[in-house]
Amino acid sequence: MGAVGILAVALAGVWSGTFSAAKDAPPSQPKSTPLAATDSRSVPPAAAEVRPVAVPTEMPRTNASEPPGPVAVAAPPSADTNDLLNLGTTLLHEGQFEQAISAYQKHLGAHPDDEEAFFDLGYAYGRLGQNAAAITNYEQAIKILPEYAEAHNNLGNLLVKEHRLPEAVEQFNAAIKALPEHASAHNNLGRTLAELGRLPDAIQQFREAVRYDSNYFDAYYNLGSAQFQIGHPPEAVEAFSSALRLNPDHGPTRQFLERARARLGK
Q1: With contact defined as beta carbons under 8 Å apart, do 222 and 191 qualify?
Q2: Is residue 51 left, alpha or beta, with left meaning phi > 0 and alpha meaning psi from -120 to 50?
Q3: Residue among 192, 194, 188 at smallest CA distance from 218
Q4: Residues in the chain with pLDDT < 50?
Q5: Burial 171-187, CB ≥16 within 10 A → b, else e
Q6: Is the Cβ–Cβ distance between 212 and 186 less than 8 Å?
Q7: CB 24 within 8 A of CB 86
Q8: What is the CA radius of gyration of the chain?
C-alpha cells in the first residue's frame, strides 16, 4: 500500500471500497542537549506519516493475546535519563523500535510524567503491531496532558484499526477540540464517519481538512469519493480536480475524475 489508500470504483458505475489513508502523527525529534528541547506537539500535521486504515502498513501484532507492555521501568540510579530520552528518540527514528522502547521505559522510571515519552512509546508499540500496548501509552500521555492533540489523533487511528469506530470518533473530536486546525484529525474523522455510513458528516470533515491545508491530497481525494457516493458529481469533479492538480500522476484520481465527469455528461 502506498502513501494513499486505494479507493476502488466498480466498472459497472457503483462506487465501492475504502477511502484514503488515515494519518498518524510522527514521534518527536531527538532533543539536542545544547539547544532548547523540541516539543513534539509542535510538529505540523503536514509532516505526519500516512497510515492506511483498511490495509495497515504496520507489522501485524505478533500475539493477539499479548498484554500491553509496561508503561515504565525504573531506571538505574546512575543512568542519565536525558541521554536515555535522546537515545530512545534516535532509535525510534532509525526504526529500532524494541531498543527505543527499552530506553523510553528506563527514562520514564525517573520521569513518570513525561507525556512525550509516553507518546513515543505508543508510536513504537504501534509500529511493532502491539496495539494494546500502544493504546495504553497514548492513553497515559493523554492522562498527563488532556489537550494532547497528536496523541488523541494517533489513538483514534489505533481504535479504527481495532474496529472500535465510535471510540475513534471521540478521540478525533478531542484532537480537533484541542487543535481545531489539525487537518489530519479532520481527515481521519471524516474517514471514520464514512465507514460508519455518515457521509454528509464525513464530507464536512474533509472540507475542514482542505480548508486548513489546501495542499492535502488525501482529503481532496476523500472529499471527491464521498461526494460521488451521495450523488453529487459536480462537487466530486471539483474535489478530484483539486486532488489531481496536487498529484497529476495519480492514475486512480484521473480515472475517478473521468467517471464523475461522465455522470455530468461531459
Answers
A1: yes
A2: beta
A3: 188
A4: 1-18, 30-79
A5: bbebbbebbeebbbbbb
A6: yes
A7: no
A8: 20
Cβ proximity of 172 and 188 under 8 Å: yes
- The C-alpha atoms of residue 73 and residue 110 are separated, in whole angstroms, by 9
Cell representation of residue 135: 493504546
Please say whether the dihedral angle defined by the alpha carbons of residues 50, 117, 40 and 138, taken in this order, is positive or negative.
Answer: positive
Rounded CA separation 140/124 (Å): 14
Q: Which fold has domain 22-51+67-209?
A: 1.25.40
How far apart are alpha carbons 231 and 246 in whole angstroms? 24
The string of pLDDT tens digits covering residues 17-66 is: 346 656 677 676 544 322 222 223 322 233 233 233 222 222 222 222 33
Give the residue among 251, 263, 265 at the shortest CA–CA distance from 4: 251
Q: What pLDDT, on the 0 to 100 scale, is given for residue 43? A: 27
pLDDT of res. 221: 97
Write out the DSSP string of 55-120. Answer: S--SPPPS-TTPPPPPS--PPPTT--HHHHHHHHHHHHHTT-HHHHHHHHHHHHHH-TT-HHHHHH
Cell of 148: 494532547
Give the contacts of 96 (CB within 8 A, at least 6 positions apart).
none
CB contact set of 55 (below 8 Å; sequence gap of 6+): 1, 5, 6
Cα separation of 91 and 30, whole Å? Answer: 9
- How is residue 235 written as a grid cell? 462537487
Q: Which of 204, 249, 247, 208 is nearest to 227 (CA)?
A: 204
